[in-house]
Amino acid sequence: MIQTVQGLMISRALAKISRAAALLLLMGVQLLAGCTGDKSSNPSINFIELPGARGLLPSMSTANAAFESAHYSGNGVCEACHTDTAVGDARRMVVQTEAGFKDVSIGLAWESSTMAQSARDPYWHAVVAAELNRYPTLADEINDTCTRCHAPMANDLAKKDNLDLQVFDTGSSEDGTLVKGIYTMGDEDALFNHAMDGVSCALCHQIEPGNLGDPSSMTGGYVVTPWENAEDRLAYGQYENPDVVYMKQTAEFTPQHGPHMSDSAVCATCHNLTTTPVDANGEPLADVTHFAEQMMYTEWQLSDYATGGPLAATCQDCHMPKLDKPVPLASAGADTPRDEFAEHTFLAANTVMQSMMSAYQSELGIDPGIDFAPAIERNREFLKTAATLALQDGALSDNELSFDVVVTNTSGHKLPSGYHSRRAYLHVLVTNASGEVVYENGRIDAQTGAIAGVSEDVNPANFEIHYDEIVDETQVQVYQAIVGNPAGERTHSLLDGTGYLKDNRLTPLGFDKNSVPADVAVAGDALNDDDFNNGVDTVTYKVAVDGEGAYNVLVELRYQPFAYGHLIDLFAEFDQIDQVDMFRTIYDNTTLRDEIITTTTGTIQ
Ligand code: HEC
Ligand code: HEC
Ligand code: HEC
Ligand code: HEC
Ligand code: HEC
Questions:
Q1: Cα 466 from Cα 471, distance rounded (Å)
Q2: Calpha distance 443→473 (Å, rounded)
Q3: Distances from the Cα of 276 to the Cαs of 258, 457, 519, 592, in angstroms?
Q4: Cis peptide before 416 (omega within 30 of 0)
């Protein structure tokens, strides 16, 4: 979105005012919750009291989104044509739906995705800062690795132009040793503008096809050609024979057919990710070559979605859904409406981060014109497509209620997948004929995000095992990946992880746990659970009840991007690390903690 400086300042001021109002509202809500919710009645949640957070860091600057360099341009340059700012009948990038006209402008869809804001993500800042704190000798590697995918244009610019790139300031201005990081730079710095554009138009669209699908392309191994003349730079897209003249003249990029853009392998450059584990001194381990941190492409490859059968779907098919009506690719200069236009909504799961970004828009330096609410809404709808639930074999005898919950993953990879802080879990509620709750398993605390009965939420060195049968409230089915270090203990650091102590994330359909490579193996008790495989898990619940009658069972599958156990571990360092303090302040002052993927109900008597 391009804004004049003045317009920007006015809307920033407005954003500030509405945030103050929102905070007041929030405080009111929390007070109310404090009056009604009785935490002490449930012994299985232990609240860890942390000292009060110190507050927010100084706000980050907004960036110049319309920057141009020898290699890249900011989204503002592309949006001049690929976001339609016309009004009324002059608008071209709209389609008619049952609900009315829908604006499918590319920049408008992209800008509220977490990819667009990946370098302003306060959780990313906190984790990078924690890793730097833990491994000071690895500062260069951490700055390079962590920006490769989260601030990719800055990382690539730094490599091409031989610049120093670090995330945070080091040294001090007093003794003249200060080296500025992208975190505190302003819009006069090229590295800052490149970084703050996140995973942007000019990065994805310049990825060369050469090494795609090969391991060398993954873990950030995308290749962007350095060009002598700016206008020779290619912007690859899915269409043959694009009209090149207007875009080449105005934006100095040449649109070019690149079938690789429609292939999942282009996403694999950042979404398949291995690390090289290190010991406590930051030295590589002799006997471990790599740790498979995120394997979304490999998981997908081993599923029915990749094999060309009836379920066939690429990453783009699900995350960038195609319109069923033709639409022009640009607001000007694109005369032929094109079929199969791919929406840049990047439908996803992390609404919690989007709500934080929305609440702290000005502090994080996010363009105040961006509205996260529609993105959160469509992601919430998208999450409903991730799984189905069924209740079966319900029985009541000898004061024991028993039933099976069948969970089926209908996403294109493990569920959850991606970053290791994600978890999905089952919440089960049993009520008797008079509506009284007789049993509850997996209850979330709305304020902290802790789940009753989950051991990691009390002590983050522990974790909940995978269950085939659940017989009491301290056993909760949590689908997640738990990273282990060489000593076989749980670790929350990305750099000393060598394998998984538990990986019972629901596998995708078609994925056979008995014949997959080690990098995507199921780990822990789920491996020996016969009814956990091929997209499906069946969990048996046994509940003691008081006599005969009809019992209503409600089951929810819920998704939480920030497992509370991870946060306890991270927040413990808040008084030493500014960015951790900042993230904790944001977390404590926002309210969204998880989402409901799907629900099922039944009556057993
Ligand atoms: C090869 C690309 C790549 C590299 C290198 C990389 N990341 Fe990421 N990171 C990702 C992707 C992709 C996601 C999103 C996954 C998801 O949504 O589950 C992500 C997500 C995250 C998140 C979660 C953000 C959120 O809001 O939930 C954190 C924290 C994070 N990364 C930290 C790091 C740190 C620290 C480093 C450096 C040690 C790093 N990443 C290096 C690709 C990368
Ligand atoms: C994460 C990578 C990524 C980012 C970021 C991205 N695109 Fe795309 N874009 C794609 C892919 C992939 C396709 C082709 C989709 C397909 O074939 O299914 C595409 C297609 C297009 C097309 C052709 C029309 C269409 O929708 O199919 C245009 C034009 C385009 N992108 C412009 C942009 C602009 C402008 C931005 C920034 C505001 C942007 N893209 C950001 C990956 C990206
Ligand atoms: C001056 C207007 C203008 C600007 C600015 C502009 N484009 Fe385009 N773009 C177009 C037009 C016109 C087309 C061709 C439409 C057609 O043939 O249907 C196009 C096509 C594309 C395609 C589709 C190529 C294909 O063959 O599928 C991509 C991708 C693309 N642009 C990306 C970008 C990116 C990235 C930027 C910013 C660096 C950008 N555009 C800036 C006007 C523009
Ligand atoms: C240059 C690296 C890069 C490329 C290429 C890339 N991604 Fe991402 N993607 C990221 C990073 C980094 C994040 C995490 C951002 C954050 O949360 O801070 C992410 C996040 C996402 C998310 C949001 C996940 C969530 O938890 O909500 C989706 C969806 C996604 N990417 C889809 C795609 C698709 C589809 C493609 C291919 C068309 C693609 N990405 C290509 C780096 C990349
Ligand atoms: C059949 C549709 C489908 C396909 C194919 C698919 N996804 Fe997803 N994806 C989903 C759904 C639904 C979710 C939300 C549930 C979840 O978090 O897994 C999701 C979630 C994600 C997330 C967030 C992960 C998390 O749990 O936080 C990322 C990142 C992502 N997908 C990237 C990709 C990439 C990269 C590919 C291709 C290799 C891909 N997806 C293929 C449907 C799909």
A1: 13
A2: 10
A3: 32, 28, 13, 34
A4: yes
What count of other Cβ atoms lies within 10 Å of the Cβ of residue 261?
20
Here the tokens at position 411 are 């996403």
CA atoms of 288 and 281, how far apart (whole Å): 16
In angstroms, rounded to a whole number, what is the distance separating the alpha carbons of residues 51 and 482?
27
| Residue 15 pLDDT exceeds 80 | no
Ligand 2, atom 11, lies closest to the CA of: 261
The rounded Å distance from CA 425 to ligand 1 centre is 22
Both tokens of 194, joined, read 């490149």
Tokens representing 38? 């009785």
Task: Please state, in angstroms and rounded to a whole number, the distance separating the CA atoms of residues 262 and 317.
Answer: 9
- Dist. CA 234–CA 255, nearest whole Å: 6
Instruction: Write out pLDDT tens, residues 136-171.
Output: 999 999 999 999 999 999 999 999 999 999 999 999
Residue (of 183, 578, 591, 11) closest to 359 by Cα position: 591
Q: Ligand 2: does its nearest atom lie under 6 Å from the Cβ of 342?
A: yes
123, two tokens: 């959780």
Take atom 31 of ligand 4 and give the residue whose Cα is closest.
Answer: 115
Q: Which residue has the tokens 């960036």?
A: 63
How do residues 365-384 score in pLDDT, each as one tens digit? 999 999 999 999 999 999 99
Query: Which residue has its alpha carbon closest to ligand 1 atom 33?
Result: 146
Counting residues of the chain whose pLDDT is more than 90, the rounded percentage is 86
Neighbours of 100 (CB within 10 A): 7
